[in-house]
Amino acid sequence: MTSNLKSINFNRGEVCEQTSSDHASAVGDYGTASINLNKSADSQIVNVSTINGGLFPNNDPNLDNPSLAIDTSLVNSSSSSSVRRPLSMDVTDEEFQTVTYKKSSKVGRQQVSSPDLVFPHHIQNVLNVNETNDNSVLSKQLNITNESTRYALTRYPFAPFVLHFKTGTVTIHQVKEELVNHGKNVHQTDLQLLNCRSTNAGLRMNEYNILVYVKDVSSFSFLLDHQNWPNSFGNEPYILQSLPSIPPQLCLLIKNVDLNLDFEDFSDTIKVKYPKVLNVIRMKNKFQNNIKMIKLELTCQSIRDKLLNERRILVNHISYEIVEYLSPANVLICSKCMALGHFKKQCTQIKETCRTCGELYDDIKHHKCSKIEKCIHCNQNHKSSSLKCQVVKTYRAELTRKLLNLNNPPAPVNTLSSAIQNYVYKPSNFPPPLLSQPPQITPMMNKLDDLINSLSEMKKQLVNVEVKQNKVEQFILDKEKNDEIIKQKITKLSNDHEDLKKDVIHRNLFIDRHENLFVKLTIPMFEDLFTLIASQNHDKKGNVLDADLKSKLERYLIQMKNDKQGLRWQEVLLLDSSLNFDVLILLETGLLDLSFYEKNFYNYRLFFQKGENSNGGVLLLVKNFLQVSRVECSIPNVCVVDVKGIDYVRIVGIYAPESKSWKWDDLSPVISNKCVVFGDFNVDLYKDTQKSELLLAWTDEHFLAPFLPNSRTSLRSDRIIDFAFVKDIDISIQTYQGNTTSDHVPVLSVLSVKTIKNQLANADMMCNIAANYYEDSFKKSEIIKPHPYTDSPVVEYDNVDEVIPEVTLEELIYTVQMKRKKKSVDANGISNFMFNFLDLNHWKLFLNLFNHSFKTALLPSAWKDTRMILLAKKESICSPSLTRPISLIDSFLKIGERLFLTRFRDILVNRGLLPDNQSGFRDGFRLQTRLLLFLEDIYSLMSNSSPVCTIFIDFRSAFDQLWHHGCIGKLRRLGIPISFLNWIEAWLLNRRGFIEIGGRKSRWFSIQKGGPQGSVLTPTLFITYHCDMSQFLSSCSSHFFADDVAAVLAGQIGIRYTDQCIDLEKRIKSFVDYLEYYASIADQPLNRSKTEALFSARAIGKPKFFISFGDAGNDMICWKEEYKYLGYIVSSKLGWGKLIKNVESKS
């Protein structure tokens, strides 16, 4: 590399499947996709289709715009008479579940459930239909599948409102925002808008239409009134074109209306009595003949619901039956084989069928369609998905007929009274009984025959299942044999691994004690030799013969020690050691091994920007005491950082070769109000006239002043090409006068900037403030007596006299060797690193000490002294409340804790105290397993169409709030032996500690509650203390990982969604009450501000209720769209997209 060097010194201061609507409407038709309509819990999904004709045609004479006459699909009206289940937008069409259609008991309707239908792959016997086929014969061959029924019941949108603008550039966001605000501020109505889109199809220049789609019936009926619209949008006038057709949600049917009555008088009477009735339409059949049904189109949902609940309407003193309006159903067509009645995922056909020509193909990329339309259903000249097909029409009619039967079951006919009144006794009607009668074939016998046939089929299937089960059992037996062999191999490998680990430990101890003899002998010998040579570098008069000899010898010595990083890094080390730079800028570094630089420049922070070739690259090194942050810059050979002082100072390092791909103007975004730009510009401002003019024009534009050194910087030419540009900073610059191995002379510079070091001046005051805070935090809580943990009767268990097993020397040495040898010291100035230099024979003394401690429950008082260091949770400069105390406990006590922990865990396992839903700090329990079980709980509840609430509980300073006496008392009542309790009590009580910041120590203060944060015993003691929490929270499915608690609650299964939400709200409130009770009795405070909730449901929408702690409602539990649980992002719909993006961004 060409090791250009810049250095600075600071003056330091401080979808779904294809439907039958292949003729999807163009922009002028205003067709829409699936939309969520109702704001209430009884929301429904509808689909707008441009299908014309059908069982209930739309003959609205008031529609001015034919393109807006939209025939809506089968729809349900209100919660009182709804038989459809709302569709969740998160569930695909191919994952339906069996649905039970329910009628309200208030209106006396029967409960009708969907029958179990056959699930065929294709419609049996593809039909060849011509113009003379009879529809009734054709319908008998059709098989209406369960998928088709549910598909038709779950797709019904609203038609849009069309706003016509002749001028202006009003955006859809303006329309949506202003319309919602107008409804809320002027009419006190919350409009639920689903979407807006714009179109200019078929319009003049500069004219455009904006289509407004609403979400629910109330919003649609509100916008039907012209007076509810604002006068303009974005100060632009508009024309509200003819209103869309009234959807089925606002329509009703009057049955059995005489064909000969005065229809005009009938219509006027209804409109006078019900002003919200917009249109009264006589229905027609497919032959365009009037029928005895009248369609009512209303503009108010409440009036419609009222009429539908009353089930009858009185017109001219005649009572008519009134029912909901049902429009023709959508037909489900497989997008793979073009067959009717199933989804693509259920299709068993291997190849795909072209919807145009009807041919089979393997890959659509290689399929060459003939463009000759041919239907696979009827062999006519139209597409296979077209509604013109007679098979599709017949299937649609049959599907609609079936849906009508589901919604309107035949009422029982009571003919008993009429039969009794007209009865006349005739003896001839009662002949004597026959002696013998042949068996009669009744419908019940037919059903029994069908059942016997079904049982025969079932028997065959069971035989097949038995064969498969035998194969599976054989496979399991083989697997168990192989698992046993693998287990033996793993055991052998594990034993070998343990032996190898012991060998490695002994070898490492040996290597640590005996340094390399070559390094000890050879390097010092050369150092003495170089010192002797340097002492002889004088003539007889004492003058130095070679001024650079000393630096050369030092460089040779460094090269001998490490010669991995090229030829010039030693020069950088020498310059840094002699001049003590705050910032170094290295240019033309080439590809770097940053780990080497981080090791040798440990007191610097490194920022590297790669170049455009193997020789390019810029490396910035900034001293650790400076507060510095990197500025994002993607330009090659340009590295930018901000140094925080009284003001931010931006430092830019640049290497600009002749072949650079960027221009000077590309650097403009990184220039700030206070900045300095150092670099190799490859431009001499005096000699390179044309290049310098371009560079100076750019610097003048940004008010950058050039600062040049006093001599040339290029050793290959007599030019000054390494210099600086400065803005609003005082600077001095010069070249290095010593020798260099580079072809560029290092440039030295001094900036006059006041910086702020990452420490406060008065460390003693900080220590005392923190000590006062944590002394108050660790004070003993005021507990109301009597308390069940300490004052309830003690149960005597059979293991009450069990003693703590003694420690063997091998176990003690193994524990010491496995302990991480950190250099952080405890309160007595001892670190684990010192164990490397303690002879193993000395541990025999500690063996007796540990066994005596376990036997007598005595601990040296010095072992209970704690040195605390504070880690900032967010900002480095903060109050003590925003820090986390880390306890550096006695090094020898750490060994004793680990020995005690293995014995304490054996007691917990034997007693079976820890619940299976607690996965933290336990052998054999993994975090990922807990996360999967948590997600499985939510998936299972959502599959039952239940709304699910997950509450993530956060305890305030969980380990630091452990109640000492309550913990001892609770463990005694859980059956922990007395010997273990006595040692834990001796370990917890009479502790003290001090806080250290920047080498300064606070006063000693008492620790009366909580467990040490750095102890291995604290987490296990914590989860044992709270092992019965799930019993208090029995109304939910709880998941524990140490102090992280997730509680999953769901509404009652088998009722309406609205009732499920109400039931869920009650359960949550009860759960929160139990949670607060447990936190109070366990003296474990809750962090209410960080306790959050996640709502998951197949239905669309957020929960309409709020949850809080207590009855006052001050401490609300916030609903979140996503939550980071155990390091994984969990969204309300349980999607993995956000997590995958985060992982990809980090990789």
From TrEMBL:
Residues 852-1130 form the Reverse transcriptase domain. Pfam families: RVT_1. This is Reverse transcriptase domain-containing protein. It comes from Adineta ricciae (Rotifer).
